[in-house]
Amino acid sequence: MSASSVPQLPQPELPLLVAACVRAVNAYDAEGLLALFAEDALVNDQLHEYWGKLAIREWADRDIIGERLTMQVVKVVEHYGHFIVRANVDGNYDKRGLPDPLVLSFYFSSHGDQIVQLIILRNQFDI
Questions:
Q1: pTM for this model (two decimals)
Q2: What's the CA angle centered on 101, arms 114 and 108, to 5 degrees?
Q3: pLDDT digit string (tens) for 105-125?
Q4: What CA–CA distance (Å, rounded) separates 101 from 51?
Q5: How many helices (H) and strands (E) does the chain have?
Q6: Residue 90, in any domain of the structure
Q7: Please, which residues have CB within 8 angstroms of residue 88's CB and are 6 or more apart in sequence?
Q8: What is the count of structural domains for the chain?
Q9: Between 76 and which of 8, 12, 15, 66 could a Cys-Cys bridge form, CB atoms 3.0 to 4.6 Å apart?
Q10: What is the pLDDT of residues 69-119, one digit of tens each?
Q11: Any idea what the CATH number is for the domain that residue 110 is in?
Q12: Burial of 90 (0-12, 13-18, 19+ CB in 10 A)
C-alpha cells in the first residue's frame, strides 16, 4: 500500500490555543511552545510534575523537542471549558514495549490566552 493510499483521519476542530500547541510541537518549536504557557503553569507528563516555565522548558527541550515528538490529533472533547485531546504520538523516543500507534491524552486547562495546566496520560480507555 502506498503512502498516498493510506486513509487520512479528519482533523478535529481545535481551539486556537490547543492548535498553536500542536503546531509548535510538530514544528519542534521550543520557543513557540513555551510562549503558550503561563509563568506558573503546571505540566504533568505521565505522573511527573513540572511547575513553572523553567521546569517546563527543561521538560520540553528533553521530552518534546529532544525526542522529535509529533502529534496527530484524532479526537477532541470539550469538557466544562477544558479540552481533552487524544493524539497518536511518534518521535525518536524508546518505543520498546509501547503500542503502535502510541495514543496519549492531553488535558488542557487555560486562562485567557495561556495554558495553565497540561496533563498527559496514556489511558487504557476511550474519552
A1: 0.87
A2: 15
A3: 999 999 999 999 999 999 876
A4: 29
A5: 3, 6
A6: yes
A7: 71, 72, 74, 101, 102, 103
A8: 1
A9: 12
A10: 999 999 999 999 999 999 999 999 999 999 999 999 999 999 999 999 999
A11: 3.10.450.50
A12: middle
- Quick check: is 23 in a domain? yes
Instruction: Tell me which DSSP letter residue 110 carries.
Output: E
Q: Is residue 5 part of a domain?
A: no
How many angstroms separate the CA atoms of 13 and 6, rounded?
Answer: 22
Alpha-carbon distance of 25 to 29, in angstroms, equals 6
Residue-number span of the structural domain to which 60 is assigned: 13-121
Residue type at 38 in one-letter notation: A
In a domain, 58, yes or no: yes
CB–CB of 37/53 below 8 Å? yes
3-state secondary structure 41-90: EEEEECCEEEEHHHHHHHHHHHHHHCCCCEEEEEEEEEECCEEEEEEEEE
Cell of 22: 500542536
Element (H, E) at 103: strand 102-111
